[in-house]
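Annex B, item 7. Sequence and structure tokens for protein A, then protein B.
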Amino acid sequence: MRKLFKYFKGYKKQMWLAPFFKVFETATDIAIPMLVANMIDIGVANHDFNYIIIMGSIVIALNIVGIASALICQKFAATASTGIAYNIRKAMFEHINTFSFAELDKFGTATLNNRITHDVTRIRQAVGMFIKQVMRSPLLLIGSAVMAMIIDLKLSLIFLVIAPLTIGAVFLILKITEPLYDKTQKNLDKVSEITRENLQGARVVRAFNKQEYEEARFSVSAKNLRKSSIKVTNISAMLTPITTTIINFSIIAVLWFGGGQVNIGLLTQGQVIAFINYMLQISAALVSVANIIIAFIKAFNCAGRINEVFDTKPSVVETNKEEINLSPLSSAPKIEFRNATFAYQGASKEAIKDLNLVINKGETIGIIGGTGSGKSSIINLIPRFYDTTKGDVFIDGINVKDYSFHQLRSKIGLVPQKAVLFKGTLRDNLRWRKADASVEEMTKAIKISQSSDFVNELPDKYSYKIQAGGKNLSGGQRQRLTIARALVGDPEILILDDSASALDFATDAALRKAIKEDIDATIILVSQRANTVKNANKIVVLENGNVVGIGKHKDLLENCMVYREIYESQTK
């Protein structure tokens, strides 16, 4: 938790003022029972209505002061706790955005989502509770105990019995529930993961009629969450009845011994009532302290999960944030892989082994191979989504590690396998590479990507509202728009990662023709279709992370068995 204190900056004033106003509320709570006792012992006993009215007015005034102080404290506490939560979420989101794909793979989307929402909320609740109770509970505990001792010192010895019993019950329950909170949090992560997976893959689930299977899988996770939540809630819920039982027995003791004191004239009825009120306030303060401790146990658990994210350093580090001056007359290859080897974290073997490949400026390169052959792994090394485990990748003769992320990735237009669009207008989505792209640039990209036919029919055209994930578009439309997005701004390198899988052969052919004629860029076509890559200047054939052939279509048909098998399986 201490590591998160830096996010408390800017809210010190509220964190000091809130407890300050809480002192006034606590003072009124401590004063009122004694005033009520005087009303009973003096006003009621002597039938002095003027005294009752005066003391009653004072009690009402103190209540108004207490309520006003509580509201002001609540405002400051809410401002501070929500502001601190905002600071943590903002910093956490920024830090997550520094992660390479390796770190995102390690955590997973569901748990990161829970940590930035649910876990930060727990910290906000604990901080808010602490600000409101840090002064109230100790002052109420001490003040009520002092006032009770002023009323009758011997009778107040009852507190010496109830305090250890209450504190013991609190710490016993806390010790049992602490590991259960951690287990519940992990079960919540699992439920979130399954929910997200099913919502994203709803079409696949229905296509294979696996609703019952997925419902059963979700039910198991939900039952585990319910079981752990009920267990920890039931144990935590025992705190209130246990403390209430202790207090009730203590009240019986006060009435028993206090009643005897009243009979012999050592105490008045009002003093006994005030004593009971102070005892109730002490019990409330002890329960409040227990609730603060429970909230902080949850918060400490969540803080550990949040700090795990903050403590995770990105494996791909931006070593240079300055722009590199490139010679326009450089004769270096546009892209070069030198003995590049790459393995995913925790994988038993390399995805790419000792890759040596030269791609010259303006060339169109095809990369083909079976599933898991390493096609996507190669192109992920170019924009540094991952770093090589051995060897290097160069662009324009300069190691990609020497570029700033902005300069490196501004050279590249990437179309991923999965077509991802974001909520907003079509114009907003097309301007991701170039924020100030003109209508002419967008129109050109739309035309090349073969999207003109449906974009021109959209209501409001570029102002058309796209739903999250592009759900109001077909798969082929989404794919063509992601291609258009990559083309806006004229990238130097265009990477198409199996980005025509949802297109028919005629549209695919028209797309490749338009790219070849209208785009002045180095193009990398990743595909499992031989027809997509066969006209490339150079085709790279992969198998199990190894290059088994490099050359033109005709040469590979004669000399590369893997390529020939792929081609013949698709054409014969």
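Protein B:
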Amino acid sequence: MTISDTTKIFKYTSISLLAVTTLSSCKMEENRKPNIIFIMTDDHATNAISCYGSKLIQTPNIDRLAQEGIRFENNYAVNALSGPSRACILTGKFSHVNGFKDNNSVFNGDQQTFPKILRENGYQTAMIGKWHLITEPQGFDYWCILSGQHEQGDYYSPDFIENGNHITESGYVTDIITDKVINFLDNKEKDKPFCIMYHQKAPHRNWMPAPRHLGIFNDTMFPEPDNLFDDYSHRGSAAKEQDMSIEHTLRNDWDLKLLTRQELLNDTTNRLYSVYRRMPQEVQQKWDSVYAGRIAEYKSGELKGEELVRWKYQQYMRDYLATVLSVDENIGRLLAYLEEKGELDNTMIVYTSDQGFFLGEHGWFDKRFMYEESQRMPLVIRYPKSIKAESVSQALSMNVDFAPTFLDMAGIDIPEEMQGVSLKPVLTNAGEIPPNWREAVYYHFYEYPGEHSVKRHYGIRTADFKLIHFYNDIDEWEMYDLKRDPKEMVNIFDNPEYSDKKNELMQLLKKARTEYKDDEQTLSMR
């Protein structure tokens, strides 16, 4: 054999080996399980996200996730309250099954959760940020959760429990939580997929912006919702007896920040003082300067009646929306990090909130009610390997669907005990509604008597209608035609024009309660 022949054999062998190696590498990449970053904020309304049509604020980084992925138009909480929503997301089960019905509950961490299952199947798992489930997290290789303020944590110099150890960090909470997520990614095992639950405190009450955003909207006048002065004349006692109105419930000190520095220092028992003292001196000085004009305007005594309500609404929006800015900025920071590390397209990035929030609609702030602003949750997901860019879905989805979806996307069997369904058929088909998809989403709120005095109620929402039963100390029904009345202003339950539709919805509700095993006789329907 000549040298020339030997060279040819070596060349062809090398090409063949390269081809085999390339095919093998492609096959490994094809079979690679997605990394998962589940970003959840607290009380972020869809009406404060620009890809959902907000006229209040621009959120370019959340918008990017939607533009490069999918936006769900009809995603709903099954219990619009912080702790219960988190328990439903972890377990894929409704509140009455997972045992965490209200914020006075304690989460049973021994039950099955999707992070535990992912971890058992080779994932590295982390829980970073707001937990709010009282017991310590289980199923995570690393966890670092906010503590203090009844587990809500603080905006400035927050306290954390990190793998069981209590620590205090300097800085602003939204930035710190993102720092911790990036630090985990820098130190994770390189050969394993990961799942991070990245939970921000913001924009939870009392809406304290980052130092760089203090006063950013002081000169902005935000559009008012046209039902800011709703008189609830076409609703029942639940809407009339709540305690979550901008007019009566917002606190001058805690919510509106109407105490001067001297007033704060003279009353060390005030809750706002405990937050103020966590700020560095230079931040306190900026805070004092930013809120001085607001305080003077209020103390002038010239604001009365509807004018005062409108003024309170503007202050609420200025603080709430300024707090949202740091959320969006930090998502951008994380996306830039993932892009730099070459992991962006290998990672399924999910953005949501634990429920919606009232931004002045019906004259309210907070959540709890089954009305749209509270029940509806944002949900955008980016994962270009499976999700077509600029997809939009009208499929009815719930937060109990998240756990089975993550498992399904990772190629892991979904436990029968999970009550949600996988959204994978929606994700992988450009948002199209699959055949035989659910007709309605189910809701049940339990925390009464309790903060904000929202009556206990349960119900269903279909594509076009909503049916609600308020129970416990009352027995009242509400029904809404969401096409004609999207702001849910007129209860049509007793309108004879809708008698057939009412009967249809009553049967759907009965079916849902049976399917989800929430059909106790004490809640029987008439």
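Comment on protein B: Confidence is low (pLDDT under 50) at residues 18-28.
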